[in-house]
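I'll show a sample.
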Amino acid sequence: MSKDMLTRVIGCKSSFQIWDKIHAYFHAHTNAKARQFRSDLRSTNLDNRSISDYLLQIQSLVDALTAIGDSVSSKEHLDIVLEGLPEEYESTVSLISIRFDELSIEEVETLLLAHESCLERFKKKNLISVNILETPSSSNPSTLQP
């Protein structure tokens, strides 16, 4: 038994009291961890990450909760994923939300990855358009010097 744990059980008269103290300590510690993991889940959002990184972060927190006996339902998991997405994903979030049958996390991941890919293509097209508009043209009379 560790020194830390030994100090917690000093004064116990029976093995039952020792076990009860140890159980209470680890139960409180586990509950605190579960609250922290759930808080982290609620505050997780996409920020500047890729969809893959975002979903992996959520999955690792869900797995951590499951490992300590506080499982997350698939519906709750899906809600957490959708709530952390920014406005630019609203069309995909709406599509997923209005479905009668519940999609699996894997199906949602596929939809979100496709949406992310479309957003990237759109951003590249806009960047190219902006660069073309901002590049001075040699035929523009205002750029020619007399």
About this structure: The CA atoms of residues 51 and 113 lie 6 Å apart. The chain has one domain: 18-131. Residues 18-131 form one domain.
